[in-house]
Amino acid sequence: MSGERILVAGAGAIGSFFGAQLAAAGRDVTFLVRPARRAAFACGLSIASASVPVELAQPRTITATDLGSEPPFGLILLACKAFDLDATASDIEPAVEAGALVLPLLNGVRQLDVLDERFGADAVLGGSCFLSVHRTDEATVRHDGQKARLTFGARGPVRRPVEAVEALLTCPGFAVHRAPDVVAEMWAKWVFIAAAAGATGLVGGTVGELVDADGAWIGARLLAEAAAIAAGHGYPQDETALSSSRRTITEPGSTLVPSLLADVRSGNRTEAEHILGDLVARRGDPTPGLLDAVLVRLRVYDATRPSS
Ligand SMILES: NC(=O)C1=CN([C@@H]2O[C@H](COP(=O)(O)OP(=O)(O)OC[C@H]3O[C@@H](n4cnc5c(N)ncnc54)[C@H](OP(=O)(O)O)[C@@H]3O)[C@@H](O)[C@H]2O)C=CC1
Ligand SMILES: CC(C)(CO)C(=O)C(=O)O
Questions:
Q1: What homologous superfamily does CATH list for 5-180?
Q2: 72-118 tens-digit pLDDT
Q3: Which protein residue has the closest C-alpha to ligand 2 atom 10?
Q4: Which protein residues touch ligand 1 with a CB less than 6 Å away?
Q5: What's this model's pTM, rounded to 2 decimal places?
Q6: Ligand 1 centroid to 80 CA: how many Å?
Q7: Which CATH number fits domain 184-304: 1.10.1040.10, 3.40.190.10, 3.30.70.1130, 1.20.1600.10?
Q8: Which ligand is closest in space to the CA of residue 14?
Q9: Which of 44, 58, 192, 239 has the most crowded CB, counting CB atoms within 10 A?
């Protein structure tokens, strides 16, 4: 599979970062974009990073109407926001029908149900990623902090060997981890992001700003609620991992801006339903908690933001 073509569907912060790192390492990468992004990428794509900067002079782009006439792809990195999942899944259908495996990188887990139903579970890997990236202009993405990590794995029989996917993804720009239980990894990331995005999205400030305002307890309490829901679904959270998450979301001076907070700050639509709504919907106990309060706050934000 190492020579196979990669389609990156959704060239925002995440898609641009992973696609650019793979292209810089010599992989055959094509970005599936909408017309405005295609025009923006005509002059290149930059990843601004202290550790893994990339300049792609001519990123290869296509739009959905071209996909049917493309040679086959081996792997699709799916990196849209949750509210664009249905439309993006429709767009990639010709490539999946031609044999590609789909690796979704969204936060949360509901994407697996959506993609399994549409394409069949043997076409869909599990995946998640840890990195902080934000688009700073139409063709620049800023990468902050530590080395990016992409975790992926099969959840059952899949149409292509996962070892080959690992070889295709392995490159200097980020760490790759093939997880024996990728769904457990996705739940662990979900618990963390529900707390980090929920606490910062609620107050509209970074983790450090939240802590300065004596709000560290908010992140810690959201983390505990999210972990209890995960445990109720058969994904008990490892105490060491939970402590590390708690430290990250209560760290004084932290400049961490989760993507949901970045969306709130930019007036963009958030993934509140996917990250918080889907989590509380899976809780057995109907008694609302702090997660529900944050969800309500973000629903009001989404419903009343100027461009909604
Ligand atoms: N940013 C981060 O640091 C992290 C984000 N995540 C998760 O990754 C996912 C993606 O987030 P992020 O990259 O920040 O989001 P962005 O909003 O930066 O990017 C989403 C991209 O999807 C594109 N898109 C939407 N619909 C389509 C379509 N039909 N065809 C082609 N492209 C489409 C958008 O297109 P257009 O360019 O036209 O607007 C946009 O470029 C989210 O689930 C997020 O929670 C996970 C870890 C870290
Ligand atoms: C918190 C972070 C950066 C960790 O990867 C993330 O997942 C997000 O911003 O959505």
A1: NAD(P)-binding Rossmann-like Domain (3.40.50.720)
A2: 999 999 999 999 999 999 999 999 999 999 999 999 999 999 999 99
A3: 259
A4: 9-15, 32-34, 36-37, 79-82, 84, 87-88, 91, 105-107, 129, 131-133, 135, 259, 271
A5: 0.97
A6: 4
A7: 1.10.1040.10
A8: 1
A9: 192
